[in-house]
């Protein structure tokens, strides 16, 4: 019987040490409890980050651009995971991150 790997993609914001009101967005890839993070290299205001929704609040063009980028990254990571899964390779968070 083949068991499927657990997989999730979450986005988190890590505050800067030099400025606690600003932070960077990271994609957190989890496969079978193994966690890897990938920086999106997007600096945002910590007040506008919504952790539950994993996006920024607001209607400004820059906010919409970053939110769309987050969704693009999420779909690309899921697509790479499916491709790796279809190839039959043993899954790991590092393998998904590298893909």
TrEMBL record:
InterPro entries linked to this entry: Arm-DNA-bind_5 (IPR035386)
Q: Where is the Arm DNA-binding domain?
A: 25-97
Pfam families noted in UniProt: Arm-DNA-bind_5 (PF17293)
Stated name of the protein: Arm DNA-binding domain-containing protein
- Which organism does this record belong to? Chitinophaga caeni
- Taxonomy-wise, where does this protein's organism fall, top ranks first? Bacteria, Pseudomonadati, Bacteroidota, Chitinophagia, Chitinophagales
